[in-house]
Structure prediction request, 239 residues.
Amino acid sequence: MNKNKKWIMAGAGALILVGAGGYAMLNSYLGNKVEITQVIPAKNIAAGESGASSVESGDAKSQTFAGQKLNGEWHITRDSKVYFSVTTSKETVNFENNAVTGSWTINLDDPSGMIGTGSVELGQINSGNNQRDDHIKSADFFDIEQHPQAAFKASSFEGLPAEWQEGTAYDFIMPGSLTVRGVDKDVTFAGKAMYQDNQLKLSGTTTVTFQDFGMENPHSVLVSTENDIAVQLELVLKK
Prediction:
């Protein structure tokens, strides 16, 4: 084998090693490391009637009760999380935040009197990758030095029944305003709510875009990111 061929083969081998290493680094940087945990797991419920989903039959705790048991102020607990997810040309990457505070004042006798607010500390974003998290906290994206919190205020709660059954999840709609980077955006969460074991569990999803809050969806030579951002609330509340 002549010298030129040896150099060509050696160069090709080096490119393969560098390429493999670069892909491994890219995979480590971009790979999803957070699984979304739902407070109302789908595997624990079965389809019910009138927009409700009931826990499996035979639950001795199940009972029907009117609004007076639920009416009042409920506070978001430490078991709550807010997730947001972005989809790249490679996969969907989830970010989680458990620094969530807020409350929900329930009045099933007069739904127009319900109030719901919440906020998250954006400095507590976690995707399982510090470099990626620092990037999303930077001025190019959430700009947490200037805007350390994101907030949501519900304007109404639509579809909740006047009577509930313990262990039953009820579909409802929650329009309101989401504030990120000092920008307010009208959004609507499609949600489920369930009362069980003296806890109120709320799960809701909506979709916004990077442009809604003055951000550009990130792109690189190797990967592109869709404009949509999925936002998911997984909240546990207590009185």
Observations:
- The chain has two helices and 14 strands.
